[in-house]
Amino acid sequence: MDKKINGDVTIEDVVRIHPDSIDVFMKFGIKPIVCGDPMWGTINEEAKKANVDINILLKELNKILGK
């Protein structure tokens, strides 16, 4: 996942490739790990469930790509 993270990407893929994304998801109240396994839904789906502004979440997630 060399390009920007978008809302259609699964949380599982983001967490697998960028483990430091877990902190970002948790900051927004989205549990990226459930029962020891990554969440399977997309970022869009889980952001809607958590009533999170997807644009702000994606901005924060894409910051980790610069590290």
Question: Helices and strands in order, then pairings?
Answer:
Blueprint: H1 11-17, H2 21-27, E1 33-34, E2 37-38, H3 43-49, H4 54-63
Antiparallel strand pairs: 1-2
Please name the defining characteristics of this protein:
67 residues; mainly alpha; two-stranded antiparallel ribbon; 2 strands; globular
Quick structural gist:
The chain has 67 residues and is mainly α. It has one domain (11-66).
Protein model, in words:
By secondary structure, the chain is mainly alpha-helical. The protein has one domain. 46% of the residues lie in helices and 6% in strands. The chain has four helices and two strands. It has helices at 11-17, 21-27, 43-49, 54-63, and strands spanning 33-34, 37-38. Strands 1-2 form a two-stranded antiparallel sheet. β1 and β2 (37-38) form a beta hairpin. The protein is globular and about 30 Å long. The two termini are 14 Å apart. The mean pLDDT is 89.
Indicate the multimeric state: single chain
Structural class: mainly alpha
Q: Strand share of the residues? A: 5-15%
- What would you report as the Rg, rounded to the nearest angstrom? 10 Å
Apparent shape: globular
Q: Uncertain runs with pLDDT below 50, 5 residues or more? A: none
Mean pLDDT: 89
Number of domains: 1
User: What is the end-to-end distance?
Assistant: 14 Å
Q: Describe the largest sheet.
A: 2 strands, antiparallel
